Every structure is written in structure tokens, then in C-alpha cells.
């Protein structure tokens, strides 16, 4: 489904006057507002073609993978922490937020090859000893591990989704801020204030600010750190 590029999500960091048409992301994984349609990712971000037909040709030739799996749909949505690979490019790419809350595509660190971080947003008991975990990107897995809770971040192999490590949210952890006035920043947890009411839990950071726990995405613990790209504030009128 086509849409005017002026109507695309304001979280996309793209020029609004270069191309007239965008596409509406398919309702698959990330929400419409928090995702980049594949056409926009390849055409406007990575500059792999000027025309929609050029991008369609790349996709039809099985040259594009998201989280290790081939994607052919130009409307397929990619979002925060997704890993994008293109056969003709040497490096993988990762989608993150910049410090203006825009979705950007950055080169992934070589040490992250074959790995991705998934934040647990839902935990459901589905049978004797079996638990279904739902992640921030819409994916799910079934596991017998009872030590995993919501807000935990799992380091998993892609595309098979095998758990390599569990990053618990705790004091001393390194986190990527996914919302609020400090979106796109890396910080270290100083303390966590647990509220007894329906008010959201607060997290205080060593860097001198605080924000709600919902915006915490753990990327490092004292024993392991997932390499995230440095995000700079770049002045633009997009």
C-alpha cells in the first residue's frame, strides 16, 4: 500500500522532498510509528537505488536479510535493534534511535555478528513447565526457563533464536534509553525505585538524570556488553 512520504512516521530520519511516495509498513513486527518500511530503509537510508523498481529487484534476488532471514517484501518493517544484512555490502547494520528520537541505521559492530538483543515485554505460562516470551519486536519463543522476567534482555543467536545470555536490569548495568528526553543516550543505572502503586518505576542514572523503567533497554552488565553504535546529534531539517 502506497502512502505519501509526507505522511510517513515522524520517527523516520529521511528527507521529505526527495521522493513523493513511501509505503505503509505491513502489520508484522514493530508498530507503524516505530518502524522503517524496507523500501525506505534501502532507498532513503542506505541509498541502494533511486527508484522503487531497483529496490524491488534487490529484494526479489534474495539479497536482503533481517535477523538472518530473507525478506522480499518492500513493506516489511524494521525497527529498534533489528539486524539488517545485504549481500552486496560487507557489514551488517543495526537500527537504533538517535538523540532526537529518530530511527537511524548504523553499522553493526563485528563482535555482534550473528547476535541480537531482545527485550522481554510479555511472559505467559502456556503449559506444564513451558513459558512463552514475547519480545519488543513482536517475535516470541517458548522456553522452560523460569528465571526470565519482563524487562530482561536476552542475547540470542539469529536466526535460530537460541538464548546465549540473559541481561537482568540491575544497578551497574549499561542501558540504551529508548524514550523520553534522553532517548538515544547510553547510561549506567545507579538505582531503581520500585513504586507500590500503579505509578511507573523510576530509574536513576550515574549521568545525573532519571527516567521511567519502561525506557530502559539493557545492553551491558559487569560481565558482558553488547557493542552499540555511538549516536551523535546532527542538525537537520528533516
UniProtKB/TrEMBL annotation:
<dbReference type="InterPro" id="IPR036986">
    <property type="entry name" value="S4_RNA-bd_sf"/>
</dbReference>
<dbReference type="Pfam" id="PF00900">
    <property type="entry name" value="Ribosomal_S4e"/>
</dbReference>
<dbReference type="InterPro" id="IPR013845">
    <property type="entry name" value="Ribosomal_eS4_central_region"/>
</dbReference>
<comment type="similarity">
    <text>Belongs to the eukaryotic ribosomal protein eS4 family.</text>
</comment>
<dbReference type="InterPro" id="IPR014722">
    <property type="entry name" value="Rib_uL2_dom2"/>
</dbReference>
<dbReference type="GO" id="GO:0006412">
    <property type="term" value="P:translation"/>
</dbReference>
<keyword id="KW-0687">Ribonucleoprotein</keyword>
<protein>
    <recommendedName>
        <fullName>Small ribosomal subunit protein eS4</fullName>
    </recommendedName>
</protein>
<dbReference type="GO" id="GO:0003735">
    <property type="term" value="F:structural constituent of ribosome"/>
</dbReference>
<dbReference type="InterPro" id="IPR005824">
    <property type="entry name" value="KOW"/>
</dbReference>
<dbReference type="GO" id="GO:0019843">
    <property type="term" value="F:rRNA binding"/>
</dbReference>
<keyword id="KW-0699">rRNA-binding</keyword>
<dbReference type="InterPro" id="IPR041982">
    <property type="entry name" value="Ribosomal_eS4_KOW"/>
</dbReference>
<dbReference type="InterPro" id="IPR000876">
    <property type="entry name" value="Ribosomal_eS4"/>
</dbReference>
<dbReference type="GO" id="GO:0022627">
    <property type="term" value="C:cytosolic small ribosomal subunit"/>
</dbReference>
<keyword id="KW-0694">RNA-binding</keyword>
<keyword id="KW-0689">Ribosomal protein</keyword>
<feature type="domain" description="KOW">
    <location>
        <begin position="168"/>
        <end position="195"/>
    </location>
</feature>
<dbReference type="InterPro" id="IPR038237">
    <property type="entry name" value="Ribosomal_eS4_central_sf"/>
</dbReference>
Amino acid at each position: 500500500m502506497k502512502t505519501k512520504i509526507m505522511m510517513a512516521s515522524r520517527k523516520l530520519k529521511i528527507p521529505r522532498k526527495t521522493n513523493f511516495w513511501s509505503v505503509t509498513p505491513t502489520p508484522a513486527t514493530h508498530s507503524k510509528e516505530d518502524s522503517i518500511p524496507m523500501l525506505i530503509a534501502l532507498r532513503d537510508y542506505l541509498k541502494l537505488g533511486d527508484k522503487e523498481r531497483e529496490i524491488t529487484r534487490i529484494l526479489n534476488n534474495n539479497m536482503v536479510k533481517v535477523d538472518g532471514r530473507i525478506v522480499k517484501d518492500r513493506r516489511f518493517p524494521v525497527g529498534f535493534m533489528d539486524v539488517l544484512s545485504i549481500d552486496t555490502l560487507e557489514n551488517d547494520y543495526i537500527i537504533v534511535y538517535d538523540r532526537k528520537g529518530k530511527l537511524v541505521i548504523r553499522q553493526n559492530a563485528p563482535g555482534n555478528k550473528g547476535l541480537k538483543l531482545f527485550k522481554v515485554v510479555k511472559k505467559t505460562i502456556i503449559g506444564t513447565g513451558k513459558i512463552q516470551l514475547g519480545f519488543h519486536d513482536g517475535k516470541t519463543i517458548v522456553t522452560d526457563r523460569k528465571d526470565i522476567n519482563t524487562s530482561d534482555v536476552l542475547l540470542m543467536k539469529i536466526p535460530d533464536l537460541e538464548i546465549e545470555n540473559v541481561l537482568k536490569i540491575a544497578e551497574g548495568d549499561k542501558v540504551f534509553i529508548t524514550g523520553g528526553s534522553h532517548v538515544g543516550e547510553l547510561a549506567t543505572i545507579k538505582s531503581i525505585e520500585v513504586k507500590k502503586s500503579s505509578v511507573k518505576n523510576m530509574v536513576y542514572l550515574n549521568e545525573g538524570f532519571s527516567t521511567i523503567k519502561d525506557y530502559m533497554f539493557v545492553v551491558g552488565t559487569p560481565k558482558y556488553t553488547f557493542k552499540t553504535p555511538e549516536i551523535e546529534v546532527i542538525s537537520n531539517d528533516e
